[in-house]
Amino acid sequence: MNQTEKRYPPRLAERFFYWYCDDPLKEEIAGDMEERFWDHYEELGASKAKRKYWLNVLKFIKWHTLKRRNSNRYTQNNLTMVKNNFKVAFRNIQRHKVYSFINISGLTVGITSFILIMLYVQHQLSFDQFHVKKDRIFRITEGGDAITPNIIAPEIERSFVDEVEHSIRVYDQSGQVITIDGESYTERVYYVDPGFFSLFTFPLIQGDASSALTETKSIVLSQKAALRYFGSTDVLGKTFDLEGKLHKVTGVMSNVPANSYFQFDFVAIFSDLGWTKRETWSNWNYHTFIGLKKNVDPVSFEGKMAEKLKASQVEWGDDEPLDYMMESLNDIYLQKRFNLEYEMEKVGNIKYVYTFSGVALLILLIACINYVNLATSKSLDRAKEVGIRKVVGALRTQLIWQFLSESFLFAFAAAAGSFALAYALLPNFNELTGESISQSQMLMPSFIGSLFGLVVFISLLAGFYPAIMLSMFKPVVVLKGKFSRSGTGSKLRKLLVVVQFVISVFMVVATLVVKKQLNYINSKDTGMNREQVVYFYSDSDLNKNYSVFQNKLLANPNIESVSKASHIPTNIGSAHGIQTGETENDWELIYFMSAEKEFMDLVGMEMVEGLSLKERAVPYAELDSAGKNPTYIINETTARLMGWTPDEAIGKSVIISGYEGPVQGVVKDFHFKSLHQPIEPFVLMANPRRNNLVFAKVKEENVAETLSFIETQIGELAPELPFEYTFLDDHYDQMYTFENRLGMVFFTFTSIAIAIACLGIFGLISFMAVNRAKEMGIRKVLGASVIRIVVLLSADFMKLIFIALVLALPLAYHFMNDWLTNYAYQIDLGADVAIIAILFAVLITAITIAYQAIRTATVNPSRVLRNE
Amino acid sequence: MERRYHLGEFEETVLLVVATQLGEAYGLSITKVIEEELGRSVNMSSVHTALYRLEEKGYVKSDLSGASEKRGGRRKRIFQITAVGKSALLEAKSHREYLWSKIPEYIFEGGGS
Predict the structure, then answer these.
(1) DSSP A30
(2) Residue A210 — φ and ψ, nearest 5°?
(3) What is the C-alpha separation between A458 and A418, in angstroms, rounded?
(4) Which of A225, A353, A828, B99 could serve as A221's disulfide partner, Cβ 3.0–4.6 Å?
(5) Which H helix or E strand runs over B18?
(6) Which residues on chain B are in Cβ contact (under 8 Å) with A28?
(7) What residues are paired with A695 via a beta bridge?
(8) Are A236 and A249 in contact (CB under 8 A)?
């Protein structure tokens, strides 16, 4: 015990201990530790004892020894105030039931819409993000087309061994007949080059990704397809017929996710398609994908690749080679870089993703504005409370917290309701948008976390201004009774109402324009008669027996006409080149289809000049034999392109894909592609070998019987061919599903936005009516009529609506004009849209405020004035 | 309803030491007994935590007294076993004895330590 030697326990450790240890425990523990220190000091020496002392100090850091940071009283008070804030807020909600209902339901609808739209947006943005190599995968494109010649992929593979890992052609072919255990079905099949499964991340649950598509006549199917056709996913090595040839299953892949651009169940080998074997620059039908090696810069590679491809084209004999570009896989679905023709699958649009996000934010904004407006208009009610609280000693920050916790409570209640609502409505929403977003998305922690973040965000956005404003009242003024409906906040309230209405009117105009344009498209005369035309694929058996088949069908009085063609006339995607100048190098794309002689009448194509197919049909392929000229029936647009009138065009020689022949006739322009595009050059030819689609025009009566009659006939003549038909007008409508869906989605959310805005106005007018009840009472006593008072009360709002209309209409017209440029055939915006929007806005405001205005105006003045 | 006593193994040891050191038991003294007499390495802070819990459960009571120079003039917290603490110990003991009596003798025959 040598304290005289100044050997003390380490002071720093002691101070640290005193810092963290709770007061009541300090003495005993420090005492024990010091005693221990001297024991150690004697036994082990100073340094070891010091070290042990340090260790003890650290080991004593336990939950029960830690200092309670704040003094007990203070902590509890704070907690009590938080509890009390919520209690007061809750009581307020209960006391003002209508107000609370309006507020919470507005927020709920707003947040629900927001959640749903955000799920949609998230889904859209997640497309193709599951591919491991997504950033290195590119599609080769040319001009406005997603398809490229079949030589591109092998050419790139040969030329850029160092940069390119894979180069894959994908060709999707629908109507492929598969025969399993004697039963035939038609399916869509992807024909791809062997590296497909190495490049894209579609995991195989059976078979080997790198070798599954190497052997000829191999086929990989999805789990779904395996289950459907074999009842098991254990189908490796099983065989079935595809287009009459025996194929062996070499792999089973897990089902393609919903957020994949590619959607397929069957994959076969590209080179098994016999007619694709010859590599040419003129066989345009294929999607070419390349996978770059790591660390290859896509931008510089694109330039290099384009140069090389140009050189190859020139070598091949093309003096004006085309410019090929690369489109990242990330950009394909949302069409971020290009908006291309001949996508093989459904695509979205990044613009719509932006638009929808915007709509979601606007709806949320409208809902928040409601909250701000209602909360501040209630200020008179709360002023006395604020006054008393301040007198009793409340700090301003405490009041701000109080009002913020109130808005938090509102936002939280609304968000909880929204979550349940959105969860329940998701299937309906999926139906509306045509997407398949899973409900399990909503249960992920990240989603719930961001929802909670949203609650905080909303309670700040909506609660901040009311909290500042309400906590600002001076107790003296308020409690003296001098405080009345002062101008505080009323300007802002007006501004906010205008903002709400600008948004609403904008959305109304947008909806009207979209609807008008869609109606226009749906009813536009495309120059063809699509009604009651049914089509289906043919096979080699049916082609052999076609004339028998045709006669048998025509014998049925319900079938008016039967013909064959190579393409669906509303969606023609194959093109040749037509020479437009002196040399081979001046040429334009010309779309073509081939048909049998009855076809033009069947779909109602009209001749302008010359001979129709019925009158003359010389097959394209026979032209070499006897110097016969093949049938070329061009459309009016082609004639214009060549600088001829239809009249002049007849007999003029044209060179299409190198084959020269005179123009036999001119067909009236018709829309053979979506109305997004203008009509382009087109030629109708006769090429019986390509006519693989049978078209039949049926009478409206007994359609079901007629169809089953056709099926029986097919069953007799071509037993392997399944009868899977489509109506031409259905097919046409399908081309616009995306637009039609969009219209519906827009319509729904616009209605919601307007409903929320009206809810807010209803709340506002209710408070205004209460606040101005006495004024109106006096006016009535002095002889004002009911109508006068209604007008007076509405005038304020009508003024705001007017301002909103003046602001919103030009804005909306500007934006919608922009949108319409997407269409080659567009409506005139016209004044009618504006007139409808104005009428609508005024009417809906009038209806919203009518109830309160009339009630205030008709109430007996003595009732509101007797307390004075 | 019969009262159930929850006594962890270490708590029981500490409580037993408190009972042996009539009126002399405090954190360090208990630590020393466990370390030196029972030959078991133990931390002062764990002993402290155990005492703290025992006091919460009402098995021991404590007072501050006995400052010394060696302690820098600080008092000790002297722990004493309470009646409840005694019952808890008795119960633990009787449970053990009961179970010991149930063990067939041959188990420990042949010198399995």
Answers:
(1) H
(2) -80, -25
(3) 13
(4) A225
(5) helix B9-20
(6) 26-27, 64, 74-77
(7) A535, A563
(8) yes
Whether residue A489 is contained in a domain is answered as yes
β-pair type (A575-579, A665-667): unpaired
CATH number of the domain enclosing B69: 1.10.10.10
* A513 & A588 share domain: no
Look up residue A485 and give its DSSP letter.
S
Parent domain of B66: 9-107
Residues 6+ apart with CB under 8 A from A772: A793, A856
Tell me which residue range forms the domain holding A237: 134-332
Please check whether residue A496 lies inside any domain of the structure. Answer: yes
| Higher-confidence position of A90 and A131 | A131
Write the ipTM. Answer: 0.85
User: Is this structure's pTM higher than 0.80?
Assistant: no
C-alpha distance from A63 to closest chain B C-alpha (Å)? 10
Domain count, chain B: 1
Q: What's the pLDDT tens digit per position in A594-607?
A: 888 888 888 888 88
B65 found inside a domain:
yes
CB of A641 within 8 A of CB of A540?
no
Judge whether A665 and A610 are in contact, CB under 8 Å: yes
Which residue blocks in A636-785 are alpha helix, DSSP H? 636-642, 646-649, 703-717, 728-734, 737-771, 773-781
For CA atoms A293, A298, A302, A303, give the dihedral sign: negative
Residue A327, domain member (yes or no): yes
Which residue from A minimizes the CA distance to B28?
A32
User: ∠ CA(A421), CA(A423), CA(A427), 5° rounding?
Assistant: 110
Question: Measured between alpha carbons, how far is residue A115 from residues A346, A423, A806, A809 in Å?
Answer: 24, 9, 31, 28
Looking up tokens 């806005």 gives A841
Q: What total of structural domains would you count in chain A?
A: 4
Contact A602, A697 (CB under 8 A): yes
Residues A483 and A617 in one domain: no
Name residue A588's beta-bridge partners.
A578
A 29-88 → B contacts, CB under 8 A:
29-36, 38, 56, 59-60, 62, 64-65
Query: Is the residue at A299 inside a domain?
Result: yes
A4 pLDDT higher than 60:
no
Judgement on whether residues A572 and A715 belong to the same structural domain of the protein: yes
